[in-house]
Each structure stands twice: as structure tokens, then as C-alpha cells.
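Write out the 3D structure for:
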Amino acid sequence: MDTNTGSHRPWTFLTNHARVLSLIARDPGIRLRDVAAACQLTERAVQTIVADLEADGYLTHSREGRRNRYQVTPHTQLRHPAEAGRTVAALLQLLDEEPATTNGEPDQPPEHPAERDS
């Protein structure tokens, strides 16, 4: 096992674009400030991501008073050739599913001993 952590590059399974799109899909009226906080990004980075998503047809927005309301375009195809034929709706459904344990049951948070005994 390699214990040299100095050369290890951090990475994640989801891109910032996927995280932002997922949050907006769950709450179309969410403020970009709140998206930024949840994704641990700057507001400017989230604005750029939203602009990217809008430019490529994954997202639209409309004004409601002083706020934006977002609309995900669910049947838009994903961009990467490895996901050819897959849609944004399929991605969002996957991200919204409950995590499962190895036995196929939804993953439950561990019980605290104090809660179990009361």
C-alpha cells in the first residue's frame, strides 16, 4: 500500500456541475448563494456553472420578483460519449436514490446507545 500522501491528488465522483444541477433540481427556487454554500464553492463559481448549464440547454431560468426560478430540462442528453443516450433525468434520479447497503436495504444511520436504551 502506498503511504506517500504527498503525491495523492484528491478527486470526487461527482463534478461541481452535477452537484449544482442536483441541488437546483431538488429546489428550483434555491438561491445561488445557498447552492454555493452547500457545494463549498464561491458564488462566482456557481454562477459560471449555471451559465454553462444554461448555455448547453440543461437548465433555464425565469424571474419571479427579485428571485430566479430554475427549470431543469430533463430530456437533455448527457455530453460525454460514454453516457450516450442517457438523460439528465436519469442522472438526477440516480443521485436522488437512497443509498443502499451491500444487502440492498437503504442505509440507516447507526443507532446511538442512549437512543436505543430509552
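The chain is about 40% helix and 10% strand.
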